[in-house]
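Subject: for your reference before the review

Hello V.,

The reviewers asked for a structural picture of the protein, and I figured it would be easier to keep everything in one thread rather than splitting it across files. Below is the amino acid sequence we used in the manuscript, unchanged from the supplementary table.
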Amino acid sequence: MATETERWRANLQAEIDGINLYRGLAELEQSPELSAVYLQLAAAEERHAAVWRERLTAAGEQDIPDRPGWRTRTLLALARRFGIGLILPTVRAHEQADSTRYSGQEDAVAAGMDAEERSHARLFRAIGKQSPSGLAGSGLAQLEGRHPAAGGNALRAAVLGANDGLVSNISLVMGVAGADLAARSILITGLAGLLAGSLSMAMGEWLSVQSARELYSHQIAIEREELLAFPEEEEAELALIYQAKGVPVDEARVLAKRLIAEHEPALDTLVREELAIDPGDLGGSAWVAAITSFILFSIGAIIPVLPYFFVSGGIAIALSIGLSAVALFVIGAGITVITGTSAFRSGMRQVLFGVAAAGLTFGIGRLVGTSLG
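And here is what came back from the structure prediction:
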């Protein structure tokens, strides 16, 4: 178990690393606004470092850290050589992991260090989300409108949901068809596969969205508690966020002070800016997501089954593969609306993969059917 002095020494080393990293980023950053943000983060780390340094000195310790570790020096060397954008993802991940460093340290929590470290992590997450290449200032706000909107994500989900249903059920249908079962048995198997797959997808989607909503609600509750307990820190955090978006320092501080005074607008802004959560939406309805997933999967899964309602034998197999190939091409071409690649190439690639999967399961079904026969 680490002694108190070992804990203080580890805390001080981490703060020294943060100070030097933030100062280095400020030096390399071309945007004056974001450079000022990094300097303010460094100032916060300096306040923390002073606490641990004072305690080590009072305890009579001689081996007191005073220079950054090799990891920080390496990151800064890479940033100087290749640009800030190269190291920002690493810095963001490190800040996220480091955000709970003080959670179990009562003296650090009482001094507000825990809240400030979490604030730093959220700020870096916001910077990275808006500017993965290390751009800053007004460029951050401009980049915000260049990412695909919810409509693009919805289209992607629709295409992939139908594709999942189609590929999984054509493989299932061809597998049992290869075993030379009767058309009625293949039809029942295909419909069972459709129902099982669509219910599984719907349940998975419901759990995913509902879990996300619960997580978002918990994060908002934490943000509300921090806003009440540490209004000064949250005000400074708001100011830093607006500075990172290109708002001049004085204006950012005035805006942050006004929002904090109104409380609820401040909470709404912090939740949206730091956590990227719409408090009025919380990621959408779990039931809508589940029903949509069920329908999209079913649409894809019914296609290879359709011929078995009317015909049987080799004709049904040929029609099932033919209809599925056409649908696969449409799905592959449809995804190019998002990717911007060649519709013909993407469509044919989808057909190739889908038909290969169906052929493989057909061969396995034929092998198993022959062996059992």
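For the response letter, the relevant points are probably these. The radius of gyration is 28 Å. Residues 130-153 have pLDDT under 50 and may be disordered.

Happy to draft the paragraph if you're swamped.

O.
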